[in-house]
Amino acid sequence: MAKITFIDSNKIEITVEADSGSVMELAVQNGISGIDGDCGGVCSCATCHVHVAAEDMDKVGAANEIEQDMLELDDNVNEFSRLCCQIQISEQLDGVTLTVAAE
Amino acid sequence: MLEHTQNQTCVVIGASHAGVNFAFSLRKQGYAGNITLIDIDPTLPYHRPPLSKAYLTSDNDIASNALKAADSYIKENIKLMLGTKVAKIDAEHKHVIMADGTNIQFDQLVIATGARPFIPPIEGLTTASNLYPLRTAADVTKIKTALKQSEHKRVVIIGGGYIGLETAASMQKLGAQVTVLEREERILARVTAPEMSSFFQQLHADNGVNVLTSKNVASIQTNNGHNQVICADGEQFDADVIVVGVGIRVNSEIAADAGLTEDNGIHVNESAQTNVKNIYAIGDCAYHYNPHFARFIRLESVQNALDQGKVAAANICGKDTQYDTIPWFWSDQYDIKLQMVGLSQGYNKIVKRTEPSDNHKFSVWYFKDDELLAVDAVNNAKAYVLGTKFIKNRSKVDKQKLADLTVDFKADTLVIN
Q1: What is the pLDDT, as a whole number, of residue B417?
Q2: B151 & B238 share domain
Q3: With 0-12 CB in 10 A as exposed, 13-18 as middle and 19+ as buried, what is A56?
Q4: A39 and B71 in contact by Cβ < 8 A?
């Protein structure tokens, strides 16, 4: 089980738990504002953009190549950016904080 | 919150990508009245694109594919009426009439009825065994069940468009022996250049799927649950399961009956409004103007459904907003990720750029003279992103440099100032 904290687009902090699936699915199931996941999780739409807390980058890991390219469609991209449909939930993610990137 | 909307009701017919996202956008824009979403499909609204892809090959429950969690509708006070058929729109008296005779009064109506699979008039088709279209979660359940129960797992797919090809790839993954029958001389003929058609033809061949072109299905003969698909040229194919993917028909009858202008979709202006005030149409069913390409079009895509929903929501909430998006699409087959941006129709020049890579990484760029119209990117999100920016900005792209792999693949080097 991993506890994941989201800071949504209204700056509200919400902590949820899961043990499998993608972080995007978890966010949608919990109605996290600002995570749309329009393409259903296939890295095609860039509507699940989060900024990983700096100290959690090691746990979450860096974006893959396709993800990095897709992130360039978003003006708010930085070195902590991930498309969270590409982050799979595992115990390793326990305690991480993800901030929804501003639209 | 918009106080003047407090006692109003917005009714949405159709709860798929367009209708659902519209409803949530409307709430986000401050609409304070009732929002009622109606759909004939009894399932909690779900993502459609995975139906022919990941959902077909997995054992996941459809709930894992939900567009929004069930709780989100409650939280946003959006009323869902699923498994409910709308019989009629009374535009004059502003109410919709359900199949069971009940009425709902509306202040604003949004038609997001989408489309249904076109079932071609092929002899024997209606009596064939295990023959299905693929558009709803229920269709997929039937296809999966039929395949599981079939001994030989011989699947014939009628139609070599995206639905047919994605379904072919998925069914092959499930252990089926798949044949695709395409009527045209090449697959994806209506939507891509010959370069893309040959690539996908080869991709499917490499994966053991038999893709045949210039195959017009003339009839289907069924005896004791066993189908023979017979083509006009006399060739015959045994089929335990048949999937039909030959295009769609727009669900616009209900709009036409209500006196809305309709022809290849429900006509809307740049604000997603029909010719009747307070009635909007969005998504697959809307025939709309695209300012970038300066023509009227109808699109079958998630992007179009979502963006038109946002435009309609903003306009209903009093924010004058116009639909102006470059269309984009995607398709996943095997380990191939295809991303498309723009509209290639009317192109007269193609540039193909193949990256040095061992996993099919290339892009096809469609030009009309010097104008970049569209890009099809295979395993190449960078090409997709660059293409999106170039089309949006109407950048003039150096075609020679684009095709030259020694030139850096980035905006600075490719755009002619």
Answers
A1: 81
A2: yes
A3: middle
A4: no
pLDDT tens for each residue of chain A, 103 residues long: 999 999 999 999 999 999 999 999 999 999 999 999 999 999 999 999 999 999 999 999 999 999 999 999 888 999 999 999 999 999 999 999 999 998 7
DSSP calls for B156-190: EEE--SHHHHHHHHHHHHTT-EEEEE-SSSSTTTT
Domain check: are B13 and B84 in the same one?
Answer: yes
Residues of B with Cβ-Cβ distance to A70 under 8 angstroms: 381, 384-385
Q: Would you tell me which residues 61-80 of chain A have a C-beta closer than 8 angstroms to some C-beta of chain B?
A: 65-67, 69-70, 72-73
Residue B78 is predicted with a pLDDT of 98
In a domain, B121, yes or no: no
- If you measure CA to CA, which chain A residue comes closest to B387? A73
Going from the N-terminus, what domains does chain A have, and what CATH number goes with each?
2-98 (3.10.20.30)
Same domain, B169 and B226: yes
State how far residue A58 is from chain B, nearest Cα, in angstroms: 25
A19 has a chain B CB within 8 A of its CB? no
pTM: 0.95
Where residue B68 sits, what CATH number does that domain have? 3.50.50.60
Contact B337 A73 (CB under 8 A): no
Q: What is the tens place of the pLDDT at every residue in B324-337?
A: 999 999 999 999 99
Per the rule left: phi > 0, alpha: psi between -120 and 50, beta: everything else, B162 is: alpha
* Residues on chain A touching B49 (C-beta within 8 angstroms): 39-40, 42
Looking at CA atoms only, how far is residue B71 from chain A in angstroms? 8
Which residue range(s) make up the domain with B307?
Answer: 3-46+58-116+249-316
Candidates B78, B162, B339, partner chain A, best to mutate (most A CBs within 10 A): B339
Residue B275 belongs to a domain = yes
**B327 within a domain of the structure (yes/no):** no
Residue B234 and residue B257 in one domain: no
Examine the fold and report which residue of B230, B246, B262 is the final residue of a domain before the chain moves on: B246
Q: Residue B292: inside a domain, yes or no?
A: yes
Whether B302 and A39 lie within 8 Å, measured CB to CB: yes
How many domains in chain B?
Answer: 3
From the list B238, B53, B55, B246, the residue with the least C-alpha distance to B156 is B238
ipTM: 0.93
